[in-house]
Design goal:
5-stranded mixed sheet; 7 strands; Single alpha-helices involved in coiled-coils or other helix-helix interfaces; elongated; 3 domains; single chain; Heat Shock Protein 90; alpha+beta; two-stranded antiparallel sheet
């Protein structure tokens, strides 16, 4: 990132430009005449006018007032228009452009009009007086209008920048809110998974207590189930705590869930689907208008409930995304691959569908939801457009060490 050099709190470039402007006024004034009317007093007044222009950006109203007073001294002394008076035009331009209030520029314009009349009065010939007055008025008016034009354009650009910054802040706030809501939703689902596991543990533990004497083998099996379920519940609880540490927000607002196109309907809020229901999910999206080519490869392991739910939700969001953006009639290649150490979900659409009149309901916030869910299980998510058209999404979810060992065995 480039470092912006400053001097006295101002950009070095603008300071250098103002120094050049003041130097230009001094050179113009000195070149007007080696012996101007008023001698060195007039030269000193002109140099003072040029020096004040160094602060024309930061204090435009004060600079214009000082220049106007010095110009008035010049007129009152009868020195007549001098080459130094170009400082008056520069000050007038600066106050119209840089002053916080346009009213200051209007007042400066009125004062300049009076100065035009006073300067023209120093011309003795009537014809020359009118010519001088018209000339001074045209030049002063042109400078004032130029400053107003630049000011208007500057304020317009500033308003566009402010609007863009506001929209960016709103977008970031909406994104943070969406992430927080999705994490809250994930935490709730993980809570349901843990609660279910605890219920299984209680039932198995109660059964084992009554079967210790009558059926020790069944009791030992029940204790094993309690231990396995407890380990899974502990792992899910750790993930739940991790999600809750990253977010603490209010109840998420109700989303746009409702009846979707062609019979695709939303699920109940606290429903916990499983991969065994994958055919039903595909049928719903086929009914909604997608052409789905689904493949499952590898030997499906027994997944922890939370991980199984994540796989289901990722597939659901990938299909929802395809229906929303690729449209009705689009072809989606959906694959679920079980490897020795991971579950890989991949969805590729051709982007050749028709626009959807009513968007399909989603279980979360699209790609944000998929990323958050995959992150909870230390997975990876890649997505983006394809060179041949369409969109692709791929999620890789590593298996827990115990599950991976069982698959390898």
């Amino acid at each position: 990132m480039a470092v912006r050099q400053t001097l006295f709190g101002r950009p070095l470039r603008s300071v250098a430009f103002d120094v050049a402007v003041s130097g230009f006024v001094v050179l113009v004034g000195l070149s007007g005449a080696l012996k101007p009317p008023g001698g060195w007093w007039a030269t000193g007044v002109g140099a003072a006018m040029a020096t004040t222009l160094l602060f024309r950006r930061t204090h435009p109203s004060a600079v214009t007032a000082v220049v106007a007073v010095l110009a008035g001294v010049q007129v009152a002394a009868g020195w007549g228009p001098l080459a130094f008076d170009v400082a008056v035009l520069i000050a007038l331009y600066s106050v119209v452009k840089y002053a916080d209030r346009l009213r200051d520029g209007i007042v400066a314009g009125a004062v300049a009009a009076v100065g035009v009349v006073l300067a023209a009065l120093q011309v003795e010939n009537a014809v020359a007086w009118w010519a001088s007055a018209i000339w001074f008025a045209l030049v002063t008016g042109a400078v004032w209008l130029m400053g107003l034009n630049v000011r208007t354009r500057r304020l317009y650009v500033f308003s566009l920048e402010e609007r863009a910054a506001t929209l960016e802040r709103e977008r970031e706030a909406e994104s943070r809110a969406a992430v927080a809501q999705e994490r809250t939703r994930i935490a709730r689902e993980l809570h349901d998974v843990v609660a279910h596991s605890m219920a299984v543990m209680i039932v198995q533990a109660d059964g084992a207590r009554y079967l210790f004497d009558r059926d020790p083998q069944t009791a030992r099996e029940a204790v094993r189930v309690v231990a396995d379920t407890g380990r899974q519940a502990l792992e899910e609880m750790r993930r739940l705590v991790g999600v809750l540490r990253e977010t603490s927000g209010p109840e998420p607002a109700a989303g746009p869930d409702g009846a979707g196109p062609a019979g695709l309907s939303a699920e109940p809020a606290h429903r916990r689907p499983a991969l065994v229901e994958l055919p039903e999910l595909l049928d719903r999206f086929r009914t909604a208008g997608l052409r789905i080519d689904a493949t499952v490869t590898g030997e499906p392991p027994v997944l922890p409930p939370g991980l199984e739910l994540t796989v289901y939700r990722v597939m659901q969001e990938a299909l929802t995304n395809a229906l929303k953006h690729a449209g009705v009639g689009a072809t989606v290649a959906l694959s679920l691959a079980h490897t020795a150490d991971a579950v890989v979900v991949r969805a590729v659409d051709d982007g050749r569908g028709r626009p959807v009149l009513r968007p399909a309901p989603s279980s979360g916030h699209g790609l944000i939801g998929m990323r958050e869910r995959v992150t909870v299980y230390d997975g990876s998510l890649t997505f983006g457009p394809r060179t041949a058209g369409g969109w692709q999404v791929e999620a890789r979810l590593p298996l827990p060490s115990s599950t991976a060992t069982e698959v390898a065995a």
